[in-house]
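Hi, here's the filled form for the chain we discussed.

Project: internal
Contact: R.S.
Residues: 100
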Amino acid sequence: MARLLIQQKIPFTPHVKFQCFNREGKQFEYTVDFLLRSPQKFAGISPIVTALEVKGRLRKKDILRNDALEYCHRVKCWIVLEPHIEMWERESLFWNTSDF
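And the returned structure, exactly as it came back:
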């Protein structure tokens, strides 16, 4: 993922830690893989995001942690899975509107 971001000249900070709270009010630390310096709209995902978290397998815990990050810090993070990376390597991180 870092290679793709660097190729597209998208500035980011790796491994940024945030203090969050779960639904029971318990504090936990969440480290995102890539905090983007500006919001981005990537091909194949609907929201504009400011962070990326790369996972091999998606779990319920990942989604809940992601929700807590957005609630506590207003950071919209997308959980990137292998199919996203494969598509972006093959196609591009961004849609080419001339293809439509």
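Let me know if anything looks off before we file it.
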